[in-house]
Amino acid sequence: MSYTISGETGPWELVIGLEVHAQVTSNAKLFSGAATGFGAEPNSQVSFVDAGFPGMLPVINRECVAQAVRTGLGLNAQVNPWSRFDRKNYFYADLPQGYQISQFAHPIVGEGKITIELSDGSTREIGITRLHLEQDAGKSLHDQHPGKSYIDLNRSGVALMEIVSEPDMRSPEEAGAYLTKLRQILRYLGSCDGNMEQGSLRADVNVSVRKAGEGFRTRCEVKNVNSIRFVMQAVEAEARRQIEVWESGGTVDQETRLFDTSRGVTRSMRSKEDAHDYRYFPDPDLPPLVIEPGWIEELKSGLPELPDARRTRYVNEFGLSAYDASVLVAEKETAAFYEEVAAGRDPKVAANWVMGDFFAILNRMGRGIEDSPVSAKHLGALLDLIADRTLSGKMAKEVLEAMAETGKPPGTIVEERGLRQVSDTGAIEAAVDAIIAANPDKVEQYRAKPTLFGWFVGQVMKAMKGQGNPALVNEVLKARLDG
Amino acid sequence: MHPTDFTIRGALEALSEGIVTSEALTAAHLRAIEALNPRLNAFITVTAERAMEAARASDTRRANGVAGKLEGIPLAIKDLFCTQGVRTTAASRILGEFTPPYESTVTSNLLRDGAVFLGKVNLDEFAMGSSNATSAFGEVENPWKRGNDDGTTLVPGGSSGGSAAAVAARLAMGATATDTGGSIRQPAAFCGIAGIKPTYGRCSRWGVVAFASSLDTPGPVARTVEDCAILLESMSGHDPKDSTSAPAPVPDFAAACARGVKGLRIGVPREYRLEGMPEEIEALWQQGLAWLRAEGAEIVDISLPHTKYALPTYYIVAPAEASSNLARYDGVRYGLRRDGEDLRDLYERTRAAGFGDEVKRRIMIGTYVLSAGYYDAYYLKAQKVRTLIKRDFDEAFRGVDAIVTPATPSAAFAAGEKQDDPVAMYLNDVFTVTANLAGIPGMTVPAGYDRQGLPLGLQVLGRAFDEETVFAVSAAIEHAAGLTKLPQVRAFA
């Protein structure tokens, strides 16, 4: 059953498309050599090109083009060997040239698709219409002075990829899943850091509603939504607003709206009548962008393994469940951590430890995998100590806690705390024999009540200060009591 | 011989022989500027102290045996080229006291070769005009006079009117200029000097205030064809900072001037024979062709069928690009600002006060032709016609090595004569705009006089990146014409 919102006149379907602006990861801007770091002093990363000085000319940054090509390939899309930059003309104080250089008529990347996963385990394909390169504008700061606006041009000229989807999504969940998947792919490719709080990734959400079987009705665009959660909220809020308009006999006007995150509603920003006439035309300062097929091949061969392929490999080669594989590949860093732990070890055991005790520690400490207190190398070493029977599983959990607290490798902690598991059969037999000799009554009771076996195990382990190899203790006890 | 009468070639020889110093040459030109600029208004900014310092430094370099190709030559710089530390105005109020913190590539190249800059010369505002009348810094007077009529002030042409007048009146040995639709060739013709618009991409546009990016072409003006060749060689070269700059080697242009025209096929386009064109222009044209024939060239009738669409095409493409290029002059970051009630008001007041009428007219035309609903009919159509015009030349150059036409439909006209009729003014560019649309090189060479004694020029067009043939043909015309008349207004006459 597909997702609908019930109105007074019955159920309404949603039609959603996303335009995502992703800041290209690169050291320099799209058409100038200025730096692109986040959080720098205002106007400290501005070249004369970015500030629109007289006689300054744009020169395309090859790395930004490479990132767009990589992204196109990662989205299973057509990379266009010939594309062109256009000028989008409008006046604003933080747009120094009076135009934005963008790709209007001929984008660098054409149609593609990505597969999204939904909570019920199903998957859907979402079409990508196009990806194009463009410049970001600067930032206007209106709250710094009572009578003035301040302009920060650090972002001016920073390379963005605008990734436009087909209107293929039908629910807030799908919109969220699409953005999640897109962000995941960009981060795997390293073409965008996907940081939505810092504005490296922002979405314009196009929403319309319709009755089953209808064509498209008028859509509205909700601008600049900056988290996945807000995208999902904005979709629902805007859809509900439109349903109310239609059901009260009104008409939805095509317009640009903003999502008020505190009140959970969208409000009008500008109507179609106020829309700019951008007077697009080919930028005469830039020759067409011609990409040699050989270069595309070269970039293709250098692409990292993407999440879908990696998940399939975890299921097929490592024998992980689809769910476990999805969790482990969700973040590039997590997958890399997991693979380092799993290298040369049992991949299922590694997955259990990473997703179990290790994730629990991260959660408790409020840390991410990037600043994990336990390195993948140390966690792997811990698994080795379990495998060679130096540590029991229970002891290993304690050691992991100690590792998280101290940052020390497991071997050191084992040494310091004398936590070495005893697997010496002689020592275990001695301990077992001592317990049996001291408790003839219990031995008698055991004959009638085999569940007492656990009590014996506990006594032996206690006598051995918890360091007896549990498997061996079990084995020896069994032999002695039943033999 | 007065130091201001040297050609660049002559001065370079005199300098190398120690007959003259750059200091003496520069001082003589600065004295000429002091004497005549109040009348001619060719210079907007004279940088006398910097020039003298540069001249002395040049003499020192020469004494140390490290003389560049233009070592010690005093030049004027069109005030469209950004010059580090020297106010750059584009002859507009909107740039205010803007002083670039950078040096344009072309002027950097000239400085690298040892040139001395005397100052910044006048032009039509943002290079938009054909008479230098749209400058916010006042009109420039053409140093030539009609017959005995000393009373009528003639225009020097435009937009590089200051460059041409300064060089003709011997206030500078040569000058940088730019040509978007004829802005080098028309003023050169009006002032009786030589000037070349090289192939688009030959000289970097980096640091040149933009008018119409796909047409703007920096180039030199000077009193001889060879001097233009010497200057162009220094100004040219691939510039990675300009994406439209061509990675082509720079040939020895000066050597090409002596090649001769024997065996060359010279095209004469029938479409350039305009109805109502003065007889003396036609006569000059025929004379020029006769000289070339006498030197062994073959004259061939050719057709450039889309010529009649060139002017309207130009007046769509150039304003369209200009309307976008001039958007940056908004009062926010540099130049003139007129504060307003809000941002939009600030824009309107600043741009209303900062731009002159002609610039506003072109911004409006350009905005109109790019607007939704008009784009296809105007801009897109113009781009298609531009392709056809380019194709006309491609086909013509399969059969000929160069094309010779008149440079302008008339000699210099009087100030105010065509001011009220923008369309009549635009007609000045009728012979020159085609080369900009096609991107090919075109040169004006002085070839004669009209019946009132005013200079007339011929235009030599060549294949893209074949300036050498253009220089060879122009030098042959120059030599055959053997002109000796000097402008009435000149330094130390």
Low-confidence spans of chain A: none
What is the overall pLDDT average of chain B? 96
Number of E strands of chain A: 16
Judged by helices, strands and strand pairing, the structural class of chain A is: alpha+beta
Span of the ends, CA to CA of chain A: 62 Å
Using the alpha-carbon principal axes, give the shape of chain A: elongated
Strand content of chain A: 15-25%
Main β sheet profile of chain A: 9 strands, mixed
Which homologous superfamily in CATH is the superfamily of the domain at 3-258 and 465-481 in chain B?
A: Amidase signature (AS) domain
Distance between the amino and carboxyl termini of chain B: 11 Å
- Read across the widest sheet of chain B, the strand sequence of neighbours is 1-3-2-4-6-5-10-11-9-7-8
- The secondary-structure element order of chain B is HHEHEHEHEHEEHHEHEHHHHEHHEEH
Multimerization state: heterodimer
| Largest sheet geometry of chain B | 11 strands, mixed
Number of E strands of chain B: 11
Tally of alpha and pi helices of chain B: 16
The overall pLDDT of chain A, averaged over residues, is 93
Give me the CATH architecture of the domain at 3-258 and 465-481 in chain B, please: Alpha-Beta Complex
Largest chain interface and its two residue counts?
A-B, 30 and 44 residues
Share of helix of chain B, binned:
25-40%
CATH topology assignment of the domain at 3-258 and 465-481 in chain B:
Amidase signature (AS) enzymes
Subunit structure (chain A): Heterotrimer of A, B and C subunits.
Keywords (chain A): ATP-binding, Ligase, Nucleotide-binding, Protein biosynthesis, Transferase
EC number (chain A): 6.3.5.-
Family (chain A): Belongs to the GatB/GatE family. GatB subfamily.
Describe the structure.
- Chain A: Heterotrimer of A, B and C subunits.
- The complex is a heterodimer of chains A (483) and B (493).
- Helices cover 40% and strands 19% of the residues of chain A.
- Chain A is an alpha+beta fold and 483 residues long.
- By secondary structure, chain B is of the alpha/beta class.
- Chain B has a domain at 3-258 and 465-481: Amidase signature (AS) enzymes.
- In chain B, strands 1-3-2-4-6-5-10-11-9-7-8 form an 11-stranded mixed sheet, with helices on both faces.
- Chain A binds chain B through residues 48, 51-60, 87, 89, 91-93, 96-99, 149, 151, 277, 279-281, 284-287, and chain B through 81-82, 88, 90, 95, 98, 100-102, 104, 205-210, 212-214, 240-244, 320-321, 323-324, 326-328, 330, 332-334, 343-344, 347, 367, 370-372, 375, 379.
